[in-house]
Amino acid sequence: MAAPPSSSPSASYCVEPATSPIFGGSLKTGKIEQPHLRFLPVLRKNQGFALKASMGSPGFTQQLDKSKLETLSKAEDRCDIFDSLKDRFLNFKSKYMENVEQFENLAKAQSPKFMVIACADSRVCPSNILGFQPGEAFVIRNVANLVPTFERGPSEVNAALEFAVNTLKVENILVIGHSCCGGIRALMSMEDDANSSSFIHNWVIVGKNAKKKTETAASTLSFDDKCTHCEKESINHTLLNLLTYPWIEEKVANGELSVHGGYYDFIKCSFEKWTLDYRGTKLEEDGRIAAIDKVLWC
Ligand SMILES: [Zn+2]
């Protein structure tokens, strides 16, 4: 019986560009040869191989053998996943090549009209649901699409805001919330005053005013319905938080910048959009936004 390619399966079962000698050559054809994978079916068919070859006890060796096959299976799955990503990238590249001039211009500069703040949830990618193309939207995503107040100090969210508003001079900030948001559920579930070492707790607490308003306005609702209510309340709360940044408020007051809320319901596949009316909005601590241009796309 032929020996397997290696006696100890390892991470090398996926091609690693830094070490693979075939990486450079394979780029010309777009096909990466993975010769080690040719042995996988052989290994699967010969599950007794390790048992016969081993000097150890049969039980122990069987365990090792099972573990080896599971590792190989996982490695193969990982390769399949990246094969799929490679295909998608090459598909994107074919579109790139059809619009080379557009991408050459984007390589020199970007001037997006939108900054989008969306949840990190894998189901709510803004480019996917709203069709943003490269160069159209400067996007930041975080758990529950929150923006801390100006007073809370530096964060990656306000670093991105500063760049988008003051350097790129975007004309619109769109905050997108969504149905079944796990971050909002965590906010609604947590103890208000509990000290927690959880990073999630210490992040979603940014939305505590939205939770407070939900508890007051929707006290008779079920927990699930309260979460749905808070998903929208939190978007408005984030719009108010945006106005705590002096350079955002100034541009909104001057009409140079508009801030909008959006709510994507992926159960109904609908999208609500509204725009903050600066003149009618109350900015004090318990403030409430006035909204205009409400639309529902369904
Ligand atoms: Zn979410």
Task: Explain what you see.
There is one protein chain. With 298 residues, the protein is an alpha/beta fold. The protein has 2 domains: 11-98; 110-297, Carbonic anhydrase (Beta-carbonic Anhydrase, Chain A), CATH 3.40.1050. 45% of the residues lie in helices and 14% in strands. It is built from 12 helices and 6 strands. The chain has a 6-stranded mixed β-sheet, covered by helices on one side. β4 (258-265) and β5 (270-276) form a beta hairpin. α10 (208-217) crosses α11. The N and C termini lie far apart (62 Å). Residues 1-56 have low confidence and may be disordered. The chain binds zinc ion (ZN).
Any key phrases for this structure?
alpha/beta; disordered N terminus; six-stranded mixed sheet; zinc; 14% strand; 6 strands; 298 residues; binds zinc ion; Beta-carbonic Anhydrase, Chain A; 2 domains; Carbonic_anhydrase_sf
How much of the polypeptide forms β-strand, as a percent range? 5-15%
What name is given to the CATH topology of the largest domain?
Beta-carbonic Anhydrase, Chain A
SS element count, helices: 12
What series of H and E elements makes up the topology?
Answer: HHHHHEHEHEHHHHHEEE
Radius of gyration: 26 Å
Helical amount among residues, as a percent range? 40-55%
The shape, in one word, is globular
Distance between the termini: 62 Å
Could you report the average pLDDT, rounded to the nearest whole number?
Answer: 81
